[in-house]
Design a protein that fits this description.
By secondary structure, the protein is α/β, with parallel strands linked by helices. A five-stranded mixed β-sheet has the order 2-1-3-10-4, with helices on both faces. Strands 7-6-8-5-9 form a five-stranded mixed β-sheet. The protein is elongated. The two termini are about 25 Å apart.
Length: about 240
């Protein structure tokens, strides 16, 4: 299946080249880098060649890596969760996702530089559904001998979270980039407390022993530049 997808992509690249077009680059990304990192990379590649046709898919790492292995994507910005798949893939670490406590503008705690975990455990929270991030958040309280938050709304829907925050004194732990527009507009704010929480490192994932078409290779280099990777640091 991957071989057929590669042959089709190669054929399209050749035909586009003959037609004077810029080829195609197919990128998959998990949510956080799709907000800032991937758009920066797209701007970079479009500045070099506006005719490159870029497609961006946003999904979970599991789904995206499966599509990469099947030849349906050229490069993924995400995580490798399957140890069996890892032997087939290159991984260039980019960063973990630092999480901050996000609240509405005007929240009473914004003037509290002395906030502690004992304070915030009693807050009304927005929490992600069961999974790695939820476990990391709960561990912050458990390891300090604290109870878990009781007033909880469970959602990861970015279309819903800003409204929930705006209408209450709830708090949510998120990478600020996910709500950058609302932060820049003054609708939301970051509490002055360092959670010390970072999600698992994500990175740029490509297939080993696979020759990328010129446009896909250019996209890979644009992602590296946007991520501040001067030279590839591959985990093989």
């Amino acid at each position: 299946m991957a071989a057929l997808a590669e042959m089709d992509a190669a054929h399209q690249e050749v035909m586009q080249g003959l037609a004077g077009a810029g080829g195609c680059a197919r990128v998959g990304s998990v949510l956080t880098p799709s907000i800032a990192l991937v758009p920066r990379a797209v701007r970079l590649i479009k500045a070099l060649n506006p005719l490159v046709h870029v497609t961006v898919s946003v999904d979970t790492s599991k789904v995206l890596v499966e599509q990469l292995r099947a030849g349906e994507l050229d490069v993924v910005v995400g995580r490798i969760l399957d140890t069996d798949a890892a032997v087939e893939l290159n991984f260039e670490p980019v960063d973990g996702e630092p999480h901050s406590l996000i609240v509405r503008t005007g929240h009473p705690w914004l003037t509290r530089p002395d906030l502690t975990f004992a304070d915030i455990v009693g807050a009304a929270w927005i929490l992600p559904s069961a999974g790695r991030l939820r476990e990391q958040l709960m561990a912050l309280f458990i390891t300090r001998g604290l109870d878990l938050p009781e007033d909880v709304v469970e959602t990861s829907a970015l279309s819903t979270i800003p409204r929930l925050l705006a209408d209450s004194d709830r708090v949510v732990a998120l990478p600020p980039d996910l709500v950058r527009a609302q932060l820049d507009a003054g609708e939301l704010a970051v509490l002055p407390m360092d959670l010390g929480l970072r999600a698992d490192v994500y990175g740029i994932v490509t297939r080993k022993r696979h020759h990328l078409a010129p446009s896909a290779s250019a996209m890979l280099n644009a992602l590296r530049e946007a991520a501040g990777l001067n030279s590839p640091t591959l985990r093989r």
